[in-house]
Write a structure and sequence with these properties.
The chain is of the alpha/beta class. It is built from 14 helices and 20 strands. The chain has two domains: 180 residues, LarA, C-terminal domain (2-enoyl-CoA Hydratase, Chain A, domain 1, Alpha-Beta Complex), CATH 3.90.226; 230 residues, Rossmann fold, CATH 3.40.50.11440. Helix 1 crosses helix 2 and helix 11 runs antiparallel to helix 12.
């Protein structure tokens, strides 16, 4: 049988599937052997912005600038891009004291000083004002209303700036279709209540989904709030399957994002001949807390109802007991009706994890919905078996053990292998 691999902890883990399994597809992507020059790509993008005047023509030396940058749950060469941008602003004559760098945490935790220093360097931290967005801050400023009537409030430093620049990355997103673009504003630097309202309202709407933009009301409202928040300009990286930069786009937040989405579709879309009995997928490049379950969405798109998913998860970040216990309570209460329970919670605007951040509740909701339809085996060196089982997963210490467990579900399965679960767009 042909040897295959998955990415785990940023390394290729090679294995061979059993001889009596039928490998339908192995979704590796060709390696062009080139390493992107991020500095050059950023400079070139700034020189040719999309649907925007020349970058330097948008600014004057007296302007105050808010640079809104994605947090560490997203993988991109943030320091390199930020350094090029700051050098450009310096050439325009904008004073360092007139530049604020805001980490777009949404409802995620703020970055510790050592994390900021590791991500952006001691030099930049010493010269510029960095801060984490706080979605519970008392000085957030109203900018508009959601379709539900909920008021949306934005970070005051972002609001007060003369010019707002978002730095993010484009890869498939289970609700917004793709990350990047207007998400840097909403939910990136807005208030907890509006983020929660928006996510509960649209996450399970029929137009919402991985890679979907048309008739996606989740995505449409993100754009509306980015416009209300006066997002002037974006710089977005397009990431390939190896979690490396393929291209950088910049300019108008919607049109530049759409251009980047087009490139992303071209490099990470894969056609699946039919649905499998068993799909082997990895959390790569996600390793931060609730982000690791996102690849269950593409896996569910290519696996038969009642089939089995093996998720190899690298979890280096925050996975609190309250998150794990919320799984256990939900399973105890709803048993074989997990999807029904999730939809009831979302329709009634109820949190599954009380006092939990929105991303934890979305991860719970999406994972429970997938668990309702599939049998999932979690393979991880970082999550103990007891914790995995409390979350409703079967647990295996390695792929060999996972294969043994899966034989009790499908002895002779048709199989898909997806090396990078967080950066693939399945076409079925």
């Amino acid at each position: 049988m042909k040897p295959v691999f998955i990415f785990y902890q940023s390394q290729r883990v090679r294995f061979t599937i059993p001889d009596n399994w039928n490998l339908l597809s192995f979704h590796d992507f060709p390696d062009n052997g080139k390493t992107a020059n991020v500095n050059k790509l950023t400079k070139d993008a700034l020189n040719k912005p999309i649907q925007s005047p020349a970058f330097n023509d948008l600014l004057s030396p007296a302007d105050s600038i808010a640079i809104i940058i994605e947090d560490l749950t997203r993988t991109s060469p943030k320091r390199l891009i930020l350094k090029v941008l700051l050098d450009n602003l310096n050439e325009i004559g904008i004073s360092e004291k007139n530049i604020n760098v805001i980490i777009a945490t949404g409802t995620h935790r703020g970055l510790k000083h050592e994390e900021l220093e590791s991500a952006f360097g001691r030099d930049l931290l010493g010269r510029y004002a960095f801060s984490n967005h706080d979605c519970h801050a008392s000085d957030l400023v109203p900018i508009g209303m959601l379709k539900t009537g909920c008021e949306v409030k934005i970070n005051r430093k972002v609001f007060n700036a003369d010019f707002r620049i978002g730095i993010g990355s484009i890869s498939p997103h289970p609700m917004n279709g793709f990350g990047g673009g207007g998400k840097i504003i909403f939910p990136g630097v807005t208030d907890f209540d509006s983020i929660l309202e928006h996510h509960l309202k649209w996450t399970f709407h029929r137009g919402t989904g991985l890679g979907k933009l048309k008739e996606n009301l989740f995505y449409d409202e993100v754009n509306s709030m980015a416009r209300a928040g006066k997002l002037n300009f974006i710089i977005n990286t397009v990431l390939n399957q190896s979690d490396e930069v393929d291209e950088i786009v910049c300019g108008d937040f919607k049109q530049a994002h759409l251009t980047g989405v087009g490139r992303s579709r071209a490099i990470i879309s894969h056609r699946f001949p039919k649905k499998s009995d068993l799909t082997i997928i990895t959390s790569f490049p996600y390793s931060e807390g609730p982000q690791i379950v996102k690849p269950l969405i593409p896996a569910s798109m290519v696996t038969k109802e009642g089939g089995c998913i093996i998720l190899a998860a690298d979890c280096q970040g925050n996975l609190p007991e309250a998150f794990i216990n919320s799984f256990e309570r939900f399973h105890s209460r709803y048993g074989g009706n997990l999807l029904k329970g999730v939809l009831e919670h979302f329709n009634d605007k109820l949190l599954i994890m009380d006092e939990g951040a929105v991303d934890f509740n979305m991860a719970l909701g999406l994972t429970l919905a997938v668990q309702d339809r599939f049998k999932i085996i979690l393979v991880s060196k970082d999550i103990e078996s007891k914790k995995a089982e409390k979350m409703g997963f079967m647990f295996a210490k390695d792929l060999t053990q996972a294969f043994k467990i899966s034989k009790n579900i499908h002895p002779h399965p048709d199989v898909h292998v997806i090396p990078s679960g967080g950066i693939i767009l399945p076409l079925v």
